[in-house]
Each structure stands twice: as structure tokens, then as C-alpha cells.
Amino acid sequence: MTTRTPAFPEGFLWGGATAANQIEGAYDVGGKGLSIQDVMPHGLQTLSTQEPTDDNLKHEAIDFYHRYAEDIALFAEMGFRTYRFSIAWTRIFPNGDDAEPNEEGLAFYDRVLDELEKYGIEPVVTISHYETPLHLAREYGGWRNRALIDLYVTYATTLFERYKGRVRHWLTFNEINALFHFPFMAGGIELNRDDVEDADLYQAAHNELVASALATKVARRVDPENKIGCMVIAVPRYGLTPDPADQRKAQEETQLDFVFGDVHVRGQYPGHYLRLLREKGIELDITDADREALRNTVDFVSFSYYMSVCESADPARQTKGEGNVVGGIPNPTLEASEWGWQIDPVGLRIVLNDFWDRWQLPLFIVENGLGAKDVLVDSGEGKTVEDDYRIAYLNDHLYQVGEAITDGVDVLGYTAWGCIDLVSASKAELSKRYGFIYVDRNDDGSGTLARYRKRSFDWYRDVIASNGAVLRPSHGEDA
């Protein structure tokens, strides 16, 4: 038996990904306004506080706002070809509905782009990453309100015009289908999911889809070289048993996951979704102009991938696992991370093939990684983290990406999530670490903020330098 080396194309975009609210800190510096994240000190565990509180780790995060040059130099040392980051809406429009943008915020991202250009690292920019301006959430009701469509388009247009020629790849909304699970974080709707009327939730989804499509149209008008992508959560859903009812349940949930991608790629709602709305008695506020706008479809599909789940039609089997944050039932054949997120490298190959077969557009894996409780140790040559578990996780997932490429899937790139330790979105913790770079800051806010290279830092550098040739199959899987 011989081991096959996965074939990654020349020009494959290797890199890492972060979000502004999880790394920047400086939440009240440089004219920045408050976002919903500034009143979410405990992630998804509680809804929000009335005002910002001192226990919100995101307020300082890892201080990328002041240390971006140091961090980007470390990314360059790993050989990053691309870096996905988000722009904080409230750095540009502090309240979301301001008459003029905040120059100091725009200038900050100019400086970030300067550093990336110095090292030849291509930016991939997320326009809205889970940080709706708090003013828009509380005074407008979040994305339930159609007024946010024009406000978002104004914000996006400002970015396209300011960074014309400097940013080519744009993502309109982070994990846009998360709205059905986390209405406050993904839609600025300050209610628990069970308290949101279905009609309001589906209208908010429609408003975000129209805003995304209109921004896509503007991006091409400002610069025809722009490439616009949608970004969704990818979760393979397997039938828990061979029972056809379980298989149908898995299909139904998968179709609902696909809706946002379908609209972005095909420019219209699929029939099964229209049936769902009819059966729920929901009539969307959708205009002819909306239908025309939705025809502005994307150039590529990007997604996050962390886990898979099972589905069953049997109510007695509806046991939710600790890590199944988007529903589903734990898979009894899989192991899980310390946070209960089930580990399924083959699921990534399945996602890539399913998305490619469905949409026939280039795909971009813009989030994937392992959150773990890393321990900083002295190696004799300096402090590090011996994170062989992270290396194994990433190797196994990236090997499956190579297999999907060999299957014929067009994959643009891979940006490992949390390439530098950051505040987690789900728990708002720093102890849930993803990075190749350890940041000395703890959940109680203590620490020096010093940066240290983990063992995975050198490993990922070798993966990039070899264009994936050093990746190996796991569990004796041979060609």
C-alpha cells in the first residue's frame, strides 16, 4: 500500500482567520461605538447586559488594535498567503446610522492593510461578523427592521470605496444561517431564540439576504475585480439510523441549512422553503425590488466547519450534546473536543463534495480549528505549547480537503480559525484556545499579552511551504 499525497493547486490560499470583536480590544477607542458584543460578556450563555461590564474579555481581547503589526509579522513567518479578518461596523459607523463614517476607524484598517501588503498577504474581509451596532439592535429592533438594509449597504459601500484595489475577496455576513439559532448574535434581535416570533426571524433572514445581494451589486460597480462570497455554517447531518424517517429528517434539516447558500447562488428561494413558510402561515414582506436584488449572486461560497451531527425523527432519541450548538444528536461513532464538539474530518470532504455538486462555485474554507485548553511550558528554548492534538486535528481535516480537491472540487483556500488565540464566540473565554500562537491572557483578565509560538506554528509553516505535501492520512488510511 502506498500513501497518496494530497494535491493542492498552485496558488491555494493558505492562511488564518479572526474576527474584530474577538481580537481587537480597544472597544471604546478611536471613535468606536458599542456593538452587541460589548453587552455579551458571556457569549451565548446569557443574552446581554444593559450596559458594558468589566468582565467582558472582548473589551481588551488580545489587543490586536495596538499589536497588529507584531501579529501580522508572525503570520508572515508562518508563510500565510491570506488572512481573513473582519471590520468592526461600529469603528466605521459608531451607531450604525451616522451621517458620515468615522475616519479614525477607516484609517486603522488602512494600517492593517499596509502591514499585509508589506508581506504579500492577501486580505479576505468579512463585512459583518456577529457585531451589529448596539444602537441598531435596541432602537431599530435589529434585522427585523428593513431600515437596516440601506444602513448596511451604506456601510459596505464605504468599505468598497475606501479599500478599492486593496481588498479583492469580500464576505458579506459571517455564518449568515446562524440567525435561525442565535438571533441576537447573528441578527441583532435582543431576544432568546424561543422568544422570537417565527415571522420576525424569517423576515430578518430575508432582510439580510437582500442586504447581502445589494452589497454584492455595489461591490462590482465600485470595482469589477472584486470577488464576493457568502459565508455559512456547514454541518453535515446524518440519519441516526437507516430508518427512512431518520434519513428524511436529516434531509429536511440539511435543506434548511442550504437555504441561505441557495439564495446567494441561485438568486431565489427554493421550493421547499416556500412550502415551509406557507405551512407556518408566514408571508414575507418581499417586494419586486427585493426579487430583482436577489439576482445579484455571489462569486464563491465560503463556510465554517467544526462538527457534524445526527438527526432522528423519533422524539425519544432527541438528546442534544453539549457541543451541538446548531441542533442535532451526538454521533455515537465520533470522539469530541473538550467542549463537546464532535470531530469528523471526513465530514469536511462530504461538505465540500455536497456544496460543489449543489452550487458549482468555488469553495473557500474560512473557518476550521480545534478549541483546547493549552498549557504553556518551557521547552528549554523558550516557552511553547506542545499541541500535538491540534496538529493531528488539522492534519486529518486538511488531508480530507486534499481528497476533495482530488475528487474534482474547486477549493480556493483554507484559513484556520483563531490562528492566534482569541476570545471564543460561544463561551467568551480565552481558555478555549485555537491558535498557532499562544497569547498570555487568561479568563480572569490576567496575563502579559505576550505572544509565543506553539508547536503547531512550525507544523503549519511546513504545510504551507510544501503546499500540503507533508499532510498524511490518519488511522492507517492508505491509497
Overview of the structural elements:
The strands form four sheets. The chain has an eight-stranded parallel barrel, surrounded by five helices. Strands 6-8 form a two-stranded parallel sheet. It has a two-stranded antiparallel ribbon with strand order 10-11. The chain contains 14 helices and 14 strands. By secondary structure, it is an alpha/beta fold. It is globular and about 65 Å long. Helices cover 37% and strands 13% of the residues. It has one domain (13-465): Glycosidases (TIM Barrel), CATH 3.20.20.80.
Keywords:
single chain; TIM Barrel; 8-stranded parallel beta barrel; two-stranded parallel ribbon; 14 helices; 37% helix; 6-phospho-beta-glucosidase; EC 3.2.1.86; Glyco_hydro_1_AS; glycosidase
Described by strand count, sense and barrel closure, the largest sheet is: 8 strands, parallel, barrel
Instruction: Give the terminus-to-terminus CA distance.
Output: 7 Å
Element order, helices and strands? EHHEHHEHHEHHEEHHHEEHEEEHEEEH
Judging from the principal axes of the Cα atoms, what is the shape?
globular
Number of strands: 14
Structural class, please?
Answer: alpha/beta
